[in-house]
Amino acid sequence: MQLRRKLTFFLLALLALGSAITIYLFNSTKPVSNSTPEKKQKVEEELTDNPPEIINFTHTSLDKKEDDVVSGDVELQVEAKDDNEISKVEFYSSNGAYLIGEKAEAPYTINWSTDPWIENGEQILKIIVYDSAGQKAEATKKVTVDNKEAAEADYKMVGYYAGWSRYSGFNASNIDASKLTHINYAFANVSDDGSIVVGDPAIDFQNFKQLRQLKEQHPHLKTMISVGGWTWSKNFSDAAASEDSRARFAESVLRFILENGFDGVDLDWEYPVSGGHPDNVNRPEDKRNYTLLLKKIRETLNDQEKKDGKEYLLTIAAGASESHAANMELSELHQYVDYIQLMTYDINGEWDELTGLNAPLYPDPNSEFSWQWSVKDGIDTYISSGVPSEKLVMGMPFYGRVFHEANTDNNGLYQAFNGGTSLSYGKLKADYIGKNGFERHWIEETQVPVLYNGETFISYDDEESIAKKTDFLKKYHLGGAMMWELSQDPERVLLNRIYKELNK
């Protein structure tokens, strides 16, 4: 009986223990709150301490360089993920020293412009990815910047810099020398005694200093002192007239080059024999004397080369018409110069009776002029006169010719007008092209554009026509391109296009 009572008590205790365990297990599986599964998941995301994960950090060089060699514009791409939200991605060059930019939402892609801002050589790119919890992840990669400077090109890129541009705020230091092989400084004057002198002492020496600094930054660059031009060609004929005057002029050229850090001289005699400024002195003998003057300068520069081992350059700028070519002994003259820059512009202007084209690449069969000319005609004339094509550098204008009150027929082309002027490409781009009622028309026969608003007619060059001309000079195996003048394209739109086309 006592045994039965003990057994019953044991079984009841065991049953109570089992119930307690069951209740505990049941309660432990109940939700801790009334939160939905989605809300529970959100709480877990906010509490994560995992940093972002960078999946890929890649780049694409838009100039199609291979592997880790980049140039020009480079597209940087980042792919990342995180338990939280990614708040932003920062992109750095110079191993984090310079912020390129940041992106706050996908796709995490940004453009990195390396030319002309980044020096050639190794660059360490860095990215920092941040998430909404304030955590971050970093990654770096090495690339090699290889922007081809103009010195490596097969073609000359010659830019005239007008000294007076300084007065309008465009200094020599503003020039993008990475796109140029040569800078011609315009102008030095020819004095009454037949020697060359600075044209504007108030600014010239400051400009010369900045040109020397550009050469330090770009060792490939050559700088030339250009002598004469439209205004200061009066005394060329006297300087070339005798053996003594030619020697005096040549010695002054050498002295000027050495004293001011130039690599050579560019003669812009406008023009031998006839034409040019009304105050010019002209002689029939100029034709022969010009050859002799260049010969004497070449001999003087060669003598200096033997002394210091440095190369000195001699070039000329020349008018592109038949009459200009006929007034020089081109078949002999070219052997004394490194190259000839053809002024293949100002073919028509406000001095004409009708509106016309400043620099048509080809002649226009529909022209209303009894006489017409083109860039191609000028090139053909010099080649047929005995100048090797590789010694010809083709001029390209960074300005347009403006004709006021032009009649409305033919979109203003070959019409009567009343007065005119010239405007820089920078001014045309800012206030005329596609603005103030001006419409652009493409002249297919001549491969150049014009602007017209029903009253004012403008002949100019833009990226399309510049590309056509650059393609032409390559097909003709010319020596390169010359630009008049650099301050007229302050945003380097045309300069960059010429450089791009020549380096394809």
TrEMBL record:
Domain GH18 as annotated: residue spans: 155-504
EC number: 3.2.1.14
UniProt catalytic activity: Random endo-hydrolysis of N-acetyl-beta-D-glucosaminide (1->4)-beta-linkages in chitin and chitodextrins
Molecular function via GO: chitin binding; endochitinase activity
The keyword Hydrolase appears for this protein: yes
The keyword Hydrolase belongs to this UniProt entry's keyword annotation: yes
Any coiled-coil regions, as ranges: none
Alphabetic keyword roster: Carbohydrate metabolism, Chitin degradation, Glycosidase, Hydrolase, Polysaccharide degradation
GO BP, sorted A to Z: carbohydrate metabolic process; chitin catabolic process
PANTHER family per the UniProt record, alphabetical: CHITINASE, CHITINASE 12-RELATED
Protein name: chitinase
Organism: Sutcliffiella horikoshii
